[in-house]
Specification:
With 357 residues, this protein is mainly alpha-helical. Helices cover 61% and strands 6% of the residues. It has 15 helices and eight strands. A hairpin with a 2-residue loop joins β3 and β4.
């Protein structure tokens, strides 16, 4: 299959940026991995999710209490993914590999699969950001046209309208369809996946069985199928909308560029780091609550440049990145608020939904 080749011969921008970031960590005597700020989140989020899960099953309660708890559970599960799973799967949660591997399996506990995620997200998305044909994040569904290079269909005219509905289906499609599609086809979008060893096969099936047991069978046994269906659907919709919007606001907004790869190798005449700068955007960088909740994923520019640095360091690292971008006359895409980023995302999706000339 076609390859993308970045022009990394000079590497001037990233060399300068890396030196400045390294100096920051060295002069402040800091580790690049997580600290108490991240560990405290873990100790808040995971027990909170367990308490709500048990409470919903063990204690009789009215719908007026149960339904908000299902919404809250969906929000907490999403935050566990943003904070614990995401850093762990990138190897930035801890300096100990076994800790990262263990906490990375929190994705499996939420219904996904860490083995596929590390290839889909860490390798394909982070290397080939916004490159149609390789970046699976902009190839989620034929109902959504997420790049100018993708095939246009008449229904795309309305995608900016049905966007929330499509995003609401994210977790159901991910857990129930896409993981199995990857498993049996041995491909992520157009890219063959690494060979799974026996351990990964076992983890895949055991975690899927446990997901069905703890998210379907056990709840139905305790509360009945209709309350379960309503609660499970609400939880999944909340997770899907939150996860989809947070990740899409990083790339499918006004400012970031799109590329595409066809049947032939493509040479991108910039270094890899500059490609990340040109295809990524931040949102709500000064909103501490959003930064806490989304695990620093509102600092996507910094995350794409330094995915193995824990998100708790991004606010300070962002100052260095912005300074270096100004020095090298590069764009630094950032939206002051999450609301502005959502509006921009909707505009881009509306533009991409127009019929191609």
């Amino acid at each position: 299959m076609a390859k993308v080749i970045f022009n990394n011969r000079d590497h001037v921008f990233f060399a300068s940026l890396k030196n400045s970031v390294e100096e920051y960590f060295k002069s402040n005597n800091l580790k690049k991995t997580g600290n108490w700020k991240l560990y405290s989140k873990t100790l808040i989020l995971i027990p909170s999710a367990l308490i709500i899960y048990v409470s919903l099953l063990a204690f009789p309660m009215s719908a007026w209490i149960a339904l908000p708890l299902c919404v809250l559970l969906g929000l907490i599960f999403s935050s566990i993914g943003f904070n614990v799973m995401h850093d762990a799967c990138h190897g930035s949660y801890s300096s100990k590999k076994w800790v990262n591997n263990l906490l990375g399996l929190s994705l499996n506990a939420l219904g996904g699969n860490a083995f596929f995620w590390k290839q889909k997200h860490n390798i394909l998305h982070h290397t080939y950001t916004n490159i149609a044909g390789l970046d699976d994040d902009i190839a989620q569904s034929k109902l959504l046209r997420q790049s100018p290079a993708q095939e246009w269909m008449p229904i795309h005219r309305y995608q900016h309208i049905y966007l929330p509905v499509a995003y609401a289906m994210t977790i159901f499609m991910w857990v129930g369809v896409r993981d199995f599609d990857k498993y049996f086809k041995r491909k992520i979008h157009n890219t063959p996946i690494q060979k799974m060893n026996r351990q990964e096969h076992i983890i895949f099936w055991v975690s899927k069985i446990f997901y069905a047991l703890f998210y379907v069978v056990v709840p139905i046994y305790f509360v009945g199928w209709l309350p379960w269906l309503i609660g499970f659907t609400i939880m999944g919709i909340v997770m899907g909308i939150v996860l989809a919007y947070v990740f899409q606001l990083a790339h499918a907004v006004e400012g970031p560029e799109f590329e595409a790869v066809g049947d032939d190798d493509k040479v991108i005449e910039t270094e890899w780091a500059i490609h990340q700068i040109k295809t990524t955007a931040n949102f709500a960088p000064r909103n501490k609550w959003i930064s806490w909740y989304v695990g620093g994923l509102n600092y996507q520019v910094e995350h794409h440049l330094f995915p193995r640095i824990c998100h708790v360091h991004y606010p300070e690292v962002s100052k260095i990145v912005k300074e270096q971008c100004e020095k090298f006359q590069l764009p630094y895409h950032s939206f002051d608020t999450m609301g502005k980023a959502i509006v921009s995302h909707t505009k881009i999706m509306k533009q991409l939904g127009q019929k191609v000339a």
